[in-house]
């Protein structure tokens, strides 16, 4: 075993960054210098690519990455059991933007908000508030599906009759077609 003198992740800078690393960690529990016990954990941190989000397991069970890092930071000693290093020539995957709801769904959202008595100018501020944006949005059509769902939930919280109004508009549109 190796005495922990630095963080496990920073132990060797001559190797490429790890995609996965598993440690056996020995932790001593002491309160005010008094020994209260010890524990041994098997901690694994992994990610799909360098710079990606960390996932963690502790003793083979999924765990929050913060919990796993806390265990590593409190280690009296640790031992690296396994590691998978990254290939420095492999680029990170391209993150494509999430698809937007488009003009047709944005128009439906506008119609429902208008039928609820919300002025057209306030639609953008209400949508921004729903998704945590500090300034009104430029267009509802640029919302992602997830954001549109949050906007709809916000509208329903503020206007409990929104689902009924939406059904009426949907029935009216279907009858006109």
Topology, pairings included?
Blueprint: E1 2-3, E2 18-31, E3 34-46, E4 55-58, E5 61-63, H1 65-73, E6 77-85, H2 102-115, H3 120-131, H4 145-158, H5 162-176
Antiparallel strand pairs: 1-6, 2-3, 2-6, 3-4, 4-5
Describe this protein's structure.
It is built from five helices and six strands; from the N terminus they run βββββαβαααα. With 177 residues, it is an alpha+beta fold. Helix 2 packs across helix 5 and helix 3 packs across helix 4 (145-158). Mean pLDDT is 86; it is low at 1-8. The protein folds into two domains: 2-85, no CATH class; 102-170, no CATH class. Strands 1-6-2-3-4-5 form a six-stranded antiparallel beta sheet. The longest helix has 15 residues, at 162-176. It starts with a strand and ends with a helix. Strand 2 (18-31) and strand 3 (34-46) form a beta hairpin.
The average pLDDT score comes to 86
What class would the helix/strand composition place it in?
alpha+beta
| Integer-rounded radius of gyration | 26 Å
Q: Beta-sheet strand percentage?
A: 25-35%
Percent in helix: 25-40%
- Molecular shape: elongated
Summary, kept brief:
With 177 residues, the protein is of the alpha+beta class. The protein has helices at residues 65-73, 102-115, 120-131, 145-158, 162-176; strands at residues 2-3, 18-31, 34-46, 55-58, 61-63, 77-85.
Defining traits:
25% strand, six-stranded antiparallel β-sheet, alpha+beta, 36% helix, disordered N terminus, 2 domains
